[in-house]
Amino acid sequence: MTSDRPRIPPRPLVRAIESVRAVLALAFRKLVPGHIALMELMAAGWISQAIHAAAALQVADALAAGPRTNAELAAAVGADQDALRRLLRLLISYGIFTQRADGRYALTPMAQALRRDAEVSLRDAMLFFGSTGHRNHWSHLVDAVRTGRPVGEKLYGMPFFDYVRHDRELGTLFDRAMTSINTLAMEPLLAAYDFGRHATIVDVGGGEGALLTEILRRAPHSHGILFDLPEVVASAPTRFTELGLADRCTAEGGSFFDAVPKGGDAYILKHIVHDWAEPETSRILRTVRAAMAPDARLLIIELVVPEHTAPHPSKFIDLEMLVNAGGRERTESEYRDLLARHGFTLTRLVPTISPDNVLVAVPS
Question: For the domain with range 11-119, which CATH number is right: 1.10.10.10, 1.25.10.10, 3.90.1150.10, 3.30.530.20?
Fold first, then answer.
């Protein structure tokens, strides 16, 4: 019986392709005049907004059943024909959508990821990162660099994570975007690390449980505890039942600033540590350390900033953390030092073919 899971290419092959791409991009920037290369980089922001517009108009969903003419597509998405043609002209030039010889528009692999029902859909992520609320944060990047502080207090009078719980329109968009991004790295993560070696897994700040339930589906001898704010995990037991995991997975509500469940063999912190400034990060690590048995493992899943000058997703997300939440991305040595200050020893760094890594730590 064949598996319907996506094939994961070998990590050395992925890294080799990334290296070639980086070299070619650097060569291009060195060959063209500096002002031309700089202008092209600046225009990347406009491309992002064009992708956001296509996502908001649901263009990819309208093409899911097959190619359409400009008139048919404009009618389906409620857009002006000429303006839609101009939008798609730009996106087609970057391989997002295509136009057939007969003039009809169609999907490409990148456009497939904008469909709402795609196996790995980035539509919600594009809607959030192109939204007015998110763009407003980045318009204050200068202030964040000058002060070293996130811009939430200035914009909303409260930290970003408090505001998205208050403004549920933006909060729902943010939650869906994070879920969307999490699906992007799910398969590479599960292919790189054997979570099934742990009998009881506690997913701290695990949201609605997407990662934990997928781990348990593939690790039939493991049990799980999903831990997040009470309102976040309220509906989790229903999903556990639907997935046939009710006998192996429970949900507990609380704050990781106060305490986390005891009894785990492994504690997952996925995209948690990078969200917070140093004082909050210290509190989280202390509460997790207090709950852990001496032989338990801490699994921090984060991007790790490489020690080179080439572009890397972690360098973008690092500024996203600065602007929004006050957190940061770290190098491997910075993680080693951070963990040592809070009673842990970093024993392994497990890379994946995605930007995520699994940092495995034990109590000191």
Answer: 1.10.10.10
**Catalytically annotated residue among 134, 274, 312, 342:** 274
Write the pLDDT tens digit of every residue in 260-297: 999 999 999 999 999 999 999 999 999 999 999 999 99
Domain ranges across the chain? 11-119, 176-363
Say how far apart CA 210 and CA 214 lie, in whole Å: 6
Q: What is the pLDDT of residues 126-169, one digit of tens each?
A: 999 999 989 999 999 999 999 999 998 888 899 888 888 888 88
Q: pTM higher than 0.70, yes or no?
A: yes
Pairing of strands 223-228, 200-204: parallel
C-alpha to C-alpha distance for 72 and 316, rounded to whole angstroms = 38
Q: Is 274 a catalytic residue?
A: yes
Report the alpha-carbon distance of residue 22 to residue 146 in Å, rounded. 30
